[in-house]
Amino acid sequence: MPRTVNDAPLTTRAARERLAARHQPYWRAIEAGAAVGYRKGAMGGVWLVRVADPAAGGGYRQSALGRADDALKAAGTEVLDFRQAEAKAREWIARHHRIAAGLEPEPTAAPAAPYIVADAITDYLADYVARGGKAPHELRYAINAHILPAVGALPVGRLSRERLKAWHRAIAASPARVRAKAGEQRHRNTEGDPEALRRRRSSSKQKPARRGV
To answer: What is the extent of the structural domain holding 132?
Structure first.
C-alpha cells in the first residue's frame, strides 16, 4: 500500500539548500499516489518521479527526470527547475497510466545519459573528501562559482582545449566575487583598475596546493 507523503520544501533553490544531502529522496505529492522527488548529493540534486504501482517492487514505479537547477541554469531539458520537473513528472505519470491500461506500448530502453562535467566534479569531490582533502568547503565554493555555471552541463567528451582556454580567460577577465545571498552572484566593482585585473589573471593561473588535492 502506498505510504503517505510528507511534502518536502522543494519549490525553490533556497529551500532545497537547507535540506541535508542524502541518498534517500525528498518527496512532494502532485496527485493521488504520485509525487515528484529530489535526491540531494554533495554537488547538487536530481529530480525524480514515482507513481503507485502494485506490480512494481516496493509498491512504486520510479524514474529520474533530470538535474536540479541547484548550480546550473535550468533549460527545460537536462537541467530543470521545480515547475519544469513537475510538468515533466506529470507527463511521465500520464504515460505510465496509458501503458498500464494497454493504450501504449512499453518504451524501449533509453540511451545512457552523457557523462557531464558536473558528474566528473561530483566524483572528484567524493574522492577528494575520501583522501582527506583539507578544504572541501572552499573547493565547493570555487566549483559553484566558476565551473558549474560555465561548463557543468557540458559532456566531458566535448571539453576541447579551445573551450577550456576560453573559460580560463573569462575567469581572469571577470571581477572578483563578493559574498551574497543564496542564489545570487555579486562582483566587486573594479572597472578601470588595471592592478585588480592583473591580480585576477595571476590568481586564475595559480595551481592548487598538492597536499590534500
So the answer is: 117-205
Residue 19's Cβ-count burial label (10 Å; 0-12, 13-18, 19+) is: middle
- pLDDT tens, residue by residue, 54-94: 776 668 899 999 999 988 888 888 899 999 999 999 999 99
Nearest CA to 125 out of 137, 116, 111 is that of 137
Query: pLDDT tens digits, residue range 151-173?
Result: 888 888 888 889 889 988 888 88
Residue 184 lies in a domain: yes
Sign, CA dihedral 190-138-140-133, equals: positive
- What is the grid cell recorded at 99? 501503458
Number of domains in the chain: 2
User: Do 159 and 151 touch, CB atoms closer than 8 A?
Assistant: yes
- 125 domain residue, yes or no: yes
Considering the domain architecture, whether residues 96 and 138 belong to the same structural domain is answered as no
